[in-house]
Specification:
Oligomer: single chain
Shape: globular
Radius of gyration: 12 Å
Helix content: 10-25%
Strand content: 15-25%
């Protein structure tokens, strides 16, 4: 299994929408499928950015803020 950062491009979401998630999946196709099944915002998106997380180096993967 791999770890993926799945996010919507800037401008594809507004206040209160899901815009990024961490997904554990076999590959990018399964990561996209899981993201679309898990969130209405991802289900409706035309484009989703997916990047595999390198587990061999220390990193901050996601810092989320709802705004306001």
């Amino acid at each position: 299994m791999n770890v993926y950062l799945v996010k919507l491009p800037v401008g594809e979401y507004t206040y209160g929408d899901d815009y990024a998630m961490i997904v554990v999946a076999e590959d990018e196709l399964h990561a996209e499928r899981k993201a679309r099944w898990s969130s209405y915002n991802f289900r409706q998106a035309k484009k989703i950015d997916i990047s595999q997380v390198n587990l061999n180096e220390e990193a901050v993967i996601l810092t989320a803020n709802v705004g306001g």
